[in-house]
């Protein structure tokens, strides 16, 4: 059998299996297609014109692959104690066998990935300076495998004796879940009407949360009173206990065969009590690809989670500067004790005012290319002369919020931020000009990983370049503000 025949046969067998599941329905207006030549794997295409609101397919809740639907948890009670993520990994490792109910589904799930989790050390080196490396979580995952997953599998040879229990299989399932799973609300009937829409477990800024909410309510469609459907979110990674209770981490066959594109998204998954339904959210032309959205993610996140980048489409990109770099630079003249006092003050400010001066990283978005006010406040407070800091502390947190914005853009801050931005720029392996040349000669079909790495790091460096220019252009009215100490390290600090 040729590779192509095998690919097509798997797609066909998968669709036949799904159609045979009681209650499952797949419209004849869609088909699975092979877009491997475009590095997009399987994809769903329209076979006819589709109207907005049309149901493309409907999957019973009983068909989804989840801890609850698999019989494994009944034989391995410890699975109930695991977090949703690890629980599903362990369940899927046990289900990945010839006689599994989901065998035909496993046959179309990937066994190889283009995500950096599977890159060589040399390839990872190409991502130096980007946030992808910090957020990879490979060591953490391997610790969970060693300390939790492997001992559990060894304890139940009757369940795991004949399946692949290797670290590779564990990483593979983790990656499948990261890029294919959904968070499905467990029991929509228990919810207040207002809260029917699934929420993103990952904490975004308040502003973004509000936007998400608005978006979802707009998209949530009601069919009729008994058959209410609400939108299901593509999975995000972070966990907390509430989310564990409310949302089921699940693999939804066929729903996960839609590729993602936040600009071209024309379908969404909605749920009712018993079914999950993929519906067109726009009119779709014959032969058009049907896209879901994975959210407005920066290319760095698309690469880390899904193994692709949107070539040249950078509108969601961000640069993240570790906050520690700003603290080290701005606090260079402070003794350990004084630095601690200021940090404590800001920690309390963050808690009480719901601000994020001391987040792990400072994010500069491509849409602003500007230092966030919270970051300017952080370095401003660290650079205050001792008497000015004592005054500020005495006046309390309202005085922090009332600091005039123009004081934040002083000559001292300008010097400091230019040095921070340049430091971040120097963390990348190459400079902008080198990458601009390199990207032209690095073809995706010849070296996809390198091409993706260049897409991510070049965009980040361009954001930094634009931000440096903006900071240089700050309109500084007073030459030297009296309340700030110079950002330049003193002799004592430099020697230390
Ligand atoms: C939920 S699956 C979609 C189905 C997948 N194409 C397949 O063959 O099984 C997500 C994966 O599809 C690929 N993918 C999704 N959207 C893509 C896009 N816009 N461009 C390139 N690859 C994409 C990535 O490999 C991603 O990890």
Automatic annotation (TrEMBL):
EC number(s) of the enzyme?
2.1.1.-
Domain SET as annotated: residue spans: 28-295
Which Pfam families did the record assign? Answer: Rubis-subs-bind, SET
Q: Does the keyword Cytoplasm apply?
A: no
Tell me where in or outside the cell this protein is found.
Answer: Nucleus
Keyword field:
Membrane, Methyltransferase, Nucleus, S-adenosyl-L-methionine, Transferase, Transmembrane, Transmembrane helix
Q: Which InterPro entries match?
A: N-lys_methylase_SETD6, Rubisco_LSMT_subst-bd, Rubisco_LSMT_subst-bd_sf, SET_dom, SET_dom_sf, SETD3_SETD6_MTase
Q: What class of enzyme is it?
A: transferase
Region entry Disordered, spans: 185-228
Return the similarity comment.
Belongs to the class V-like SAM-binding methyltransferase superfamily. Histone-lysine methyltransferase family. SETD6 subfamily.
Chain's role: S-adenosyl-L-methionine-dependent protein-lysine N-methyltransferase that monomethylates 60S ribosomal protein L42.
Name this polypeptide is given = Ribosomal lysine N-methyltransferase 4
